[in-house]
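Below is how a single chain appears once it has passed through the pipeline. First comes the sequence as given, then the structure the pipeline wrote out for it. We keep one example in the README because the format questions we get most often are answered faster by looking than by reading.
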Amino acid sequence: MTAEERPGEADQDQGPLSIFDHDDEQDPSAEEEDAAPRRRRGRRLLVWTLAVLLVLFGGGFGALVWTADHYASSVSRIPNAFPTGPAAQQPAAVPHSGQTFLLVGLDARADGPTTGRAAKAPAWQAGAQRSDTMMLMHISADRKSVSVVSIPRDTWVPVPGHGKAKINAAYSWGGPALMVQTVQDLTRIRIDHLAVIDWNGFRALTDAVGGVDITVPRTIEAKGDAREWTAGTHHMDGAEALLYVRERHGLPNGDLDRTKRQQNFLRALMLRTMDSGTLSSPARLTGLLGTVGDVVSVDDRLGNGDLYDLAWSLRGVRPDGVHFMNAPFGGFDTVDGQSVVLMDDGAAGVLWDAMRTDRMDDYLAQHRTSADTLGDKVD
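Resulting structure:
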């Protein structure tokens, strides 16, 4: 079976924004002379973030083929990551519809790493971790586009065997398998693979590229435990970037703005990797690949050969073919004293159907003014 066969608000006149969109002021004409090399790096640069985590080995495969097996093998595998119920209870696989990954960031309550080769604590213990970040990443069957949809951690959903709860509780109660089952039941999308990173890994990955530049468009005042963020561009190391993506209490839309910050960070991480020359430096590239092996875990169905096939098949993906967005928002509510996020089930059903049937490009074209895509200014 080949790799092809394996299963914010944007301005209204711009349409969905890709992860490499820039303001005009940040795109000086002096850079036009090296646009072609930058485009080539940009295609391979899709590999350098959690959001396209499994594509990461595309850069390593192309630049350091002689060590590809070493780096693929260094990624820790998660056993029993998928629900084991009857096939009739699982979403049916849709032939020739691309692949869908569930990307999870853990709010681990352990002192040491819980994901990756460097893990000093179990990836899951009942009650020890909740999923702090959840993204569905769909790679089209023609390998020309990638769509990443964030599901806010406070989204109120049915959790199999537990009634309704915030979606991040699923990982705490039942680990990866219950998390996958909960998302599959919510979306009716078959999850092909899972990738997990905790906040220790997040810090290490950020520091491995020398930090990232994040522009805060307006000053965000301190509120409660949330720090003040002054307007302007901040160069953030891993510790400060972690504060940036985890904070929500100082933001007007709470959890929704928080997912936008997470997406904005991933975009900045990609741009930082491109600008820092990591892909053209064997030493930096091996260092980054080594860090990924230390901090990332994937399901044990994803073999080294699958990583190679996926990386090679994605060599033609263009930067403007990758989009971030939030799941459709249905309002805030309070349930049993808990502040929760409601999903717009009707609008979400249209999105999930488009992802399930590999029609995300059509979806984005039809919902360019209503889809909650990532804009170029993020609080």
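Confidence is low (pLDDT under 50) at residues 1-33, 35-66, 112-121.

See the next section for the split statistics.
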